[in-house]
Design brief:
alpha+beta, 50s Ribosomal Protein L5, Chain: A, two-stranded parallel ribbon, 4 helices, globular
């Protein structure tokens, strides 16, 4: 008998605008409006002279949610997609990623002319008890393959807890 011990470790909301300035401030305002938390900047790791981006420039922002806050925001975001995900949104390590094209699709958010129309990415990390062994700083250990969250387990978890349906493969 195997217990379904899958749980949500974190939900990360990300907006990449490619440049600083007013667009980045609008993205921060949107994430703050959606989650109630202050977003942090994401910095460029390389330079790209074509786009006039230097290494270390702020090119986006993100918010990481855990616990009950993560579950409530995930429900709202999935509602904007009518609780339908693509099977290609899942990877083999217990992560789910999808995008929301326009924030006005999320229930409870109204159009703000200051922000304009923006979309964002949602990344959900799933785990099981004992994953801390792999991530701790002192004496990290390996997690056996049978203890990792598989793609099938992640789909079953979202189906059971959030009533998510999956698109048919074309």
């Amino acid at each position: 008998m195997q217990l379904n011990l899958v749980r949500i470790d974190k939900v990360t909301l990300n907006i990449g605008v490619g440049q600083g300035g007013e667009k980045l401030e609008n993205a921060k305002a949107l994430l703050k409006k959606l989650t109630g938390l202050q977003p942090v900047d994401t910095l460029s790791k390389t330079r790209n002279p074509t786009w006039k981006v230097r290494m270390g420039d702020a090119i986006g922002c993100k918010v990481t949610l855990r616990g009950e806050n993560a579950v409530s925001v995930l429900k709202r975001v999935l509602d904007s997609l009518d609780f339908v995900l693509k099977p290609t949104s899942f990877d083999n390590n217990g992560n789910v990623s999808f995008g929301v094209k326009e924030y006005i699709d999320v229930p409870g958010l109204k159009y703000d002319p200051k922000i304009g129309i923006l979309g964002f990415d949602v990344c959900v990390s799933l785990g099981k008890p004992g994953y801390r062994v792999m991530k701790r700083r002192i004496k990290p250990g390996k997690i056996p393959r049978k203890h990792r969250v598989s793609q099938k387990e992640a789909q079953e978890f979202l189906q059971k807890n959030f009533d998510v349906k999956f698109e048919e493969a074309a």
